[in-house]
């Protein structure tokens, strides 16, 4: 679940599962109930399977930039991030120089954090190195758990798991940065490796991975 739950407005009512019945009659978690951008992201992207090196590299990068910030902030800046980082093409980013780092730190459209910018370049190079071992996609998805949570309220949604801790450790061992267990659990939620849609949400089970 994104780290910044968005409170529902007074026109919404929570049902017994903890989901929020929105004006369109659909049940969503509180963080996706009010902000149109977050609602669209929840309805169309969050929790759906994501495969492929470039797509996963982008999501790992954005999750790293989100650390300590709201997901809404990152989502609003995502078009600027994509423009600044060559659509998160790992080959392009891996070739960045110090001049590129300074260019990025001067870009008001993104999060200008030197450690996170450098980590994104480092992670691009680590992504390329993984190709000799099966690739980023194979590594990430090898940590899919055997079961998924079934939270009824947001309080029941985990923030980390044994699998996210193991994934974080494996990625760090391969040279990745800003990939802690909590960040990796958020990644696993976002790409459908676990289904933490609230029981009662209209999106529960829509990934096709968990039934």
TrEMBL record:
InterPro entries recorded = Adenine_glyco, DNA-3mA_glycosylase, DNA_glycosylase
Where, by residue number, does Zn(2+) bind? 197
- A GO biological process this protein is involved in? base-excision repair
| Keyword field contains Hydrolase | yes
Q: What class of enzyme is it?
A: hydrolase
Known EC number(s)? 3.2.2.20
Alphabetical list of PANTHER family matching this protein: DNA-3-METHYLADENINE GLYCOSYLASE 1 (PTHR30037), DNA-3-METHYLADENINE GLYCOSYLASE I (PTHR30037:SF4)
What name does the UniProt record give this protein? Probable DNA-3-methyladenine glycosylase I protein
Q: Which organism is it from?
A: Saccharopolyspora erythraea (strain ATCC 11635 / DSM 40517 / JCM 4748 / NBRC 13426 / NCIMB 8594 / NRRL 2338)
The gene name reads: tagA1
């Amino acid at each position: 679940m994104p780290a910044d739950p968005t409170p529902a407005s007074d026109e919404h009512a929570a049902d017994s599962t903890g989901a929020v019945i929105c004006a369109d009659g659909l049940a969503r978690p509180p963080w996706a109930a009010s902000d149109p951008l977050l609602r669209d992201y929840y309805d169309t992207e969050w929790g759906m399977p994501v495969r492929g090196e470039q797509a996963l590299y982008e999501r790992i990068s954005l999750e790293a930039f989100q650390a300590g910030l709201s997901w809404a902030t990152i989502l609003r800046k995502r078009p600027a991030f994509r423009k600044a980082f060559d659509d998160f093409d790992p080959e392009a980013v891996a070739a960045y120089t110090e001049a590129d780092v300074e260019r990025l730190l001067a870009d008001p459209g993104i999060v200008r954090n030197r450690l996170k910018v450098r980590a994104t370049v480092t992670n691009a190079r680590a992504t390329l190195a993984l190709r000799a071992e099966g690739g980023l996609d194979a590594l990430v998805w090898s940590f899919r758990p055997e079961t998924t949570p079934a939270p009824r309220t947001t309080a029941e949604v985990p923030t980390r798991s044994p699998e996210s801790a193991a994934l974080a450790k494996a990625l760090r061992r391969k040279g990745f940065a800003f990939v802690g267990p909590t960040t990796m659990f958020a990644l696993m939620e976002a790409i459908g490796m676990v289904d933490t849609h609230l029981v009662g949400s209209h999106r529960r089970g829509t990934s096709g991975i968990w039934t």
